[in-house]
From TrEMBL:
Protein's recorded name: Dihydrolipoyl dehydrogenase family protein
EC number per UniProt: 1.-.-.-
GO MF term list: oxidoreductase activity
Organism name: Ohtaekwangia kribbensis
Chain ranges of the FAD/NAD(P)-binding domain: 4-328
Listed InterPro entries: Class-I_Pyr_Nuc-Dis_Oxidored (IPR050151), FAD/NAD-bd_sf (IPR036188), FAD/NAD-binding_dom (IPR023753), FAD/NAD-linked_Rdtase_dimer_sf (IPR016156), Pyr_nuc-diS_OxRdtase (IPR001100), Pyr_nucl-diS_OxRdtase_dimer (IPR004099)
Origin organism lineage: Bacteria, Pseudomonadati, Bacteroidota, Cytophagia, Cytophagales
Start and end residues of each Pyridine nucleotide-disulphide oxidoreductase dimerisation domain: 351-459
Pfam families according to UniProt: Pyr_redox_2 (PF07992), Pyr_redox_dim (PF02852)
Cofactors, names only: FAD
Length: 494
């Protein structure tokens, strides 16, 4: 039986990161993958959907410019766009695979191995690997990291066939733009695909929202901008509506909604996308005698260690945030915990996120919704993009910056949200400050490049310190600098 210091199951972002970190400790490591290297970080997930989003955004802006100059709009070819997404997937997947391959002729040749197959724990040290042709092999591991990810949650009453009624597993395999599509679930995946398909201008998108607004975890002012843009691109948002029936009829999708007031309506569309959350992949991953503790949300771990001392769990399989950066963080942390001692604690409070909508929304730390849920009083400063020269130069000033700090003299940064162009590139300085437990003074004085969106963040900080270029009292509606105590706002006067 082959023996390894570490066996990692699943070659998505978290398993791949764990494997590579183990090599830094010069440990003999086996990585097992049953499907595609890269997991949902590449295919039917992060990279593929972001490529669709980039192409949709470019198309939307191209079409807008053509209209502006009164030029004829060309046909948008679905196949060409889909092929471009495939090229992006192949590029990234190829790179991850080639890297593994090249390891064989590097200083890591004796350390790293990769096997294609489905893994199952027979005991807390033995892993059975079954290849596609049925060939089985059992290997021994001192330590095991489970990184088998997640898959879309199904609603059993819906006829999901991945052709007419799809999840994120099927949506990228369509053959043409549907003329209409309903999306069930107004969370991140639902709203990103609503943005993508409405952006190409070929699909009438319907979005079913259980509550009175999309993205229930997000601040109302952010959601307001996103909803307005979606509706301006023709998205029909069914608010306060419950899906009570969905059927495939003559190759199309018929669905019925019941609204909060008890009334009902029937709709007919070409396709449906179901995006109501994801569930962890742990079925059949271990023999029952291994007995790893799980909850409905995933494996309950103690800083990546399961209740079985030599078995760790990372990424989407665990009961916490499901993101590529979080999976990689956990993968690396687990290895450091097993073979060394991590230099820092595993914290989730300061994770940077981006939602790929119209416009993009990026953030780090707490938003106002979370601060209020935690009964935290805070100072909050907002600045409209129309005050930022770079946004003016881009001829698009839609968006704003919102910075939350503690309601005391230290003004430690609690969180930052930016909605607008370049939001994702602008948040990182603040993410670093939060991570370093620094206050805002450093940001106020550091010379920023001009013109840049980050100058807007600097102006927010200066507003909090009472030394901004523009004064919130004069530019009401574009700037605000307030306290929020027990959920009630009051202007800060200097
Ligand atoms: C549509 C979509 C868009 C997303 N966009 C973003 C984004 O913009 N930014 C972001 O940060 N995150 C995004 N995510 C989330 C992100 O993709 C996941 O959080 C991330 O991929 C999780 O990584 P993972 O390694 O834990 O799991 P996965 O990526 O799911 O990888 C797990 C791997 O394990 C393999 N596996 C499973 N069981 C076995 C077994 N028994 N034996 C061997 N191998 C096995 C699977 O085949 C898979 O390759 C998105 C997800 C989706 C679905
Ligand atoms: N840009 C990003 O970082 C990004 C992009 C996509 C996905 N992701 C990750 O993938 C995860 C899964 O995304 P998701 O959108 O599937 O989940 P989600 O939890 O973000 O949203 C699910 C939505 O479905 C709704 N819902 C649940 N049951 C429903 C029902 N029966 N009928 C109608 N609506 C229902 C919920 O109210 C919620 O709004 C995210 O939590 C995130 O971690 C991240």
């Amino acid at each position: 039986m082959n023996r390894y210091d570490l066996v990692v199951i699943g070659a998505g972002p978290s398993g791949y990161a764990a494997t590579m970190r183990a090599l830094d400790f010069r440990k003999k490591t086996l990585l097992i993958e049953r499907n595609l290297v890269g997991g949902a970080g590449v295919v039917n997930g992060a990279l593929s959907s972001k490529t669709w989003w980039e192409l949709s955004r470019e198309t939307a802006s191209f079409l807008k410019n053509l209209k502006r100059f009164n030029l004829q709009v060309p046909t948008i070819n679905y196949k060409e766009i889909q092929d471009e997404v495939m090229r992006a997937i192949d590029e990234r997947k190829g790179m991850l695979e080639e890297h593994l391959q090249l390891m064989k002729s590097s200083q890591y040749a004796d350390l790293v191995s990769f096997k294609q197959g489905t893994a199952k724990l027979l005991s807390q040290n033995e892993i059975e690997i079954t290849q596609e042709d049925g060939t089985r092999e059992v290997v021994w591991a001192d330590y095991i990291i489970l990184a088998t990810g997640s898959r879309p949650r199904y609603l059993p009453e819906l006829p999901i066939d991945e052709k007419s009624v799809m999840t994120s597993e099927g949506i990228e395999k369509m053959e043409d733009f549907p003329e209409s599509m309903v999306i069930v679930g107004a969370g991140v995946i639902g709203c990103e695909y609503a943005t993508i398909f409405s952006g190409f201008g070929k699909t009438k998108v319907h979005l079913i929202d259980k509550g009175n607004r999309i993205l229930p975890f997000e601040d109302e002012d952010i959601v307001h901008v996103i909803e307005r843009n979606m509706e301006n691109s023709g998205v029909l948002i069914h608010r306060n509506s419950r899906l009570i029936r969905m059927e495939i009829k003559h190759g199309r999708v018929e669905y019925e909604l019941e609204y909060d007031d008890g009334t009902k309506s029937v709709f007919n569309v070409e396709k449906a996308l179901v995006a109501v959350g994801r569930i962890p992949n742990y079925e059949d991953l271990w023999d029952e005698k291994v007995d790893i503790s799980i909850s409905k949300r995933g494996i309950e771990d103690n800083d990546t260690q399961t209740n079985i001392s030599n078995i760790y769990a990372v990424g989407d399989i665990t009961a916490d945030i499901s993101l590529v950066n979080v999976g990689e963080l956990e993968g690396r942390y687990a290895v450091e915990k097993i073979f060394g001692s991590p230099e820092r604690k595993l914290v989730y409070e300061n994770i940077s996120t981006i939602m790929f909508l119209n416009p993009e929304v990026a953030g780090v730390g707490l938003n106002e919704t979370q601060a209020r849920e935690k009964n935290i009083d805070y100072k909050v400063v907002t600045l409209d993009y129309s005050c930022i020269p770079r946004a003016i130069a881009k001829r698009n000033t839609q968006g704003f910056i919102k910075l939350l700090v503690t309601n005391d003299d230290h003004m430690k940064i609690l969180g930052l949200k930016i909605i607008g162009n370049h939001a994702s590139s602008a948040i990182q300085a603040v993410a670093l400050l939060i991570w370093m437990n620094k206050g805002i003074e450093e940001l106020a004085e550091c010379v920023h490049p001009h013109p840049s969106i980050t100058e807007g963040i600097q102006e927010c900080v200066r507003m909090l310190l009472g030394k901004s270029l523009f004064k919130p009292d004069a530019l009401k509606g574009k700037l605000s600098c307030r306290t929020s105590m027990s959920g009630v706002y009051a202007d800060i006067r200097f």
